[in-house]
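A.,

Following up on our hallway conversation. Structure tokens first:
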């Protein structure tokens, strides 16, 4: 399970240090792709296979499904954590984020996200809007 948030640096070769708490979960490898916001998603192989199956089950005649397929599969790369605990973030994904040196690594349960510090700060500000949050989250059923 991926929880918490960590600030890590990206080296000159585009390698991102993965938090020590996350590394064991990535021992079997991982996939990195463009996220749904201005972020990246890093998924275990097992979770990526679930996403892959779900996207493949969608009809290719649906324009929105095709767009989702393109977004996920054309930006997905299989990565491995090296002995120093880093993964190589492909150049096109670094360019998509505008990432140059620092990154926020943010747990999301089954996967984690990578953000630039500025984008994560904007996201955090939105999450901490106590005036809007009750209405925004009211329709979501947490089952508790």
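Then the amino acids I'd put at each of the 144 positions:
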């Amino acid at each position: 399970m991926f929880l918490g948030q960590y600030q890590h640096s990206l080296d000159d070769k585009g390698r991102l240090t993965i938090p020590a708490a996350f590394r064991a979960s990535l021992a079997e490898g991982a996939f990195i792709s463009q996220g749904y916001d201005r972020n990246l998603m890093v998924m275990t192989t097992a979770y990526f296979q679930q996403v892959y199956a779900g996207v493949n089950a969608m009809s290719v005649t649906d324009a929105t499904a095709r767009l989702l397929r393109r977004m996920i599969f054309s930006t997905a790369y299989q990565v491995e954590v090296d002995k120093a605990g880093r993964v190589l973030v492909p150049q096109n994904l670094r360019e998509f984020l505008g990432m140059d040196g620092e990154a926020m690594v943010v747990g999301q349960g089954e996967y984690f996200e990578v953000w630039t510090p500025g984008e994560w700060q904007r996201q955090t500000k939105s999450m901490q809007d106590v005036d809007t949050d009750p209405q925004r989250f009211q329709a979501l059923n947490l089952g508790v």
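The first helix runs from residue 20 to 23. Curious whether your intuition agrees with the design.

B.
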